[in-house]
Every structure is written in C-alpha cells, then in structure tokens.
Design brief:
The structure holds two protein chains of two kinds.
Chain A: E1 3-7, E2 10-14, E3 19-26, E4 32-38, E5 44-50, E6 56-58, E7 64-68, E8 73-78, E9 87-94, E10 103-104, E11 108-113
Parallel strand pairs in A: 2-11
Antiparallel strand pairs in A: 1-3, 3-8, 4-5, 4-9, 6-7, 7-8, 9-10, 9-11
Chain B: E1 5-7, E2 10-13, E3 19-24, E4 31-37, E5 44-50, E6 53-56, E7 65-68, E8 75-79, E9 88-95, E10 103-105, E11 109-113
The chains are: A mainly beta, B mainly beta.
C-alpha cells in the first residue's frame, strides 16, 4: 500500500527565510505527487504536481518541489517566506488507472515568525 | 469557472441521527471523490466515482455510510446512524484527468456529532 510521510508536524521559519517542508513516499511504481495548501476553514488548494515530466516542479506563490526517485522524496521549498504562507501543507500521492484517489500525509503546519 | 460546491457548510447532530451532505463538482469533471478529514490529520479517501459508477469504496464504512452520484453529476454522502467518531470535515473533490490530474476541492462540510 502506498503511504506518505511528512517529517515535522510543525515548522517555524522567520519571514524572508527559506521554507523547506519534507515529504517521503513509499511506492513500487512511479507515482503522481502533489502538494496542497489548506488555510483555516477552507478546502485544499493545489500548489503543484509531479506527473513524470520535469523533476523540478514550479507551483503557485513561489513554491517549487523536486522529485528524487532515489530518495523517494518530494520536498517543498520556497526561497523567501512571507507571512501569508502560514497554513497547513499536505503532500499526497496517487497512481494512474482506475482507483486513483489521493493518499495524504498528516500535514505540516507552517508558522511564519515576523 | 465555478468551483466545487458543497452544502451545508456546518452541521451539528446527535449520535444515532442521520445526516446527508451534497456536492456539485466542476462542470465536465467525470471523477468525483469524497474524503474525510479528522482534526489534525490529512484527508482520507472514502469513495471515488467515475461518472455515476463507483470505482473505489474500499475505505467507506458501508455499515453506516452510503453515497450516490445519480446522472453522473451531483453526489450525496449519507451517514446513518452517526457516531461520535464521525465528527470531521467531509471534503468533496472533482478531477478532469483522474489520478494524474489535479483534484479540485470544495470548502467542505464540518460535522459535529454530540
């Protein structure tokens, strides 16, 4: 069964600092990988997705993620944090074919210190 | 383009009562998903529809949960009877491309079972 591990339930960075949110997945076949962001009392918004094209994926709001097959990782980064980035971030994996619902990690709460 | 619509946004019921949630996906999206998000966790897939057929309901507690998608558009998720542990946010999502494509989420229905 596929699974997703997000290291760190809470990550705190200073405004303007690098943001790094970690995600590792378990898979025996090439997955499709996603990062979603959730603001309080809202649904999930797609940040970016990897679907076997370029390994470095650029998303919205200045975020990007790199797919590393050898490390089974898909870490999310942003060079300079902004106060508006404070939210819950979820890494998720899916597989093409019929049953392709997302399997989510437990989430990482990003805190931005002024 | 209108997003995924869900109603109601909030619902409070007592245990053993029944409740129903409604979802209207993005126009033209053949795939529809229902997820359960318990506080502090990532969403968990309950059921996936392709048009009006069920593709995956392996994680749906079928003794109390049911879902349908008549005519391949709107969907309804029902819980009968509700238990305390059903308190969660129920998210509906739709997708144009299935697993390799982005899933677009509605705002969710927050259920509290007393």
């Amino acid at each position: 069964a596929q699974s997703v591990t997000q290291l760190g339930s809470h990550v705190s960075v200073s405004e303007g600092a690098l943001v790094l949110l970690r995600c590792n997945y378990s898979s025996s076949v090439p997955p499709y990988l996603f990062w979603y962001v959730q603001y309080p009392n809202q649904g999930l918004q797609l940040l970016l997705k990897y679907t076997s094209a370029a390994t470095l994926v650029k998303g919205i709001n200045g975020f990007e993620a790199e797919f590393k097959k050898s490390e089974t990782s898909f870490h999310l980064t942003k060079p300079s944090a902004h106060m508006s980035d404070a939210a819950e971030y979820f890494c998720a994996v899916a597989y093409g074919g019929g049953a392709d619902g997302l399997t989510f990690g437990k989430g990482t709460h990003l805190i931005i210190q002024p | 383009e209108a997003g995924v619509a869900q109603s109601p946004r909030y619902k409070i019921i007592e245990k053993r009562q029944s409740v129903a949630f409604w979802c209207n996906p993005i126009s033209g999206h053949a795939t529809l998903y229902w997820y359960q998000q318990i506080l502090g966790q990532g969403p968990k897939l309950l059921i996936q529809f392709q048009n009006n057929g069920v593709v995956d309901d392996s994680q749906l507690p079928k003794d109390r949960f049911s879902a349908e998608r008549l005519k391949g558009v709107d969907s309804t998720l029902k819980i009968q009877p509700a238990k305390l542990e059903d308190s969660a946010v129920y998210l509906c999502a739709s997708s144009l491309e299935g697993g390799r494509g982005a899933q677009y989420f509605g705002p969710g229905t927050r259920l509290l079972v007393l």
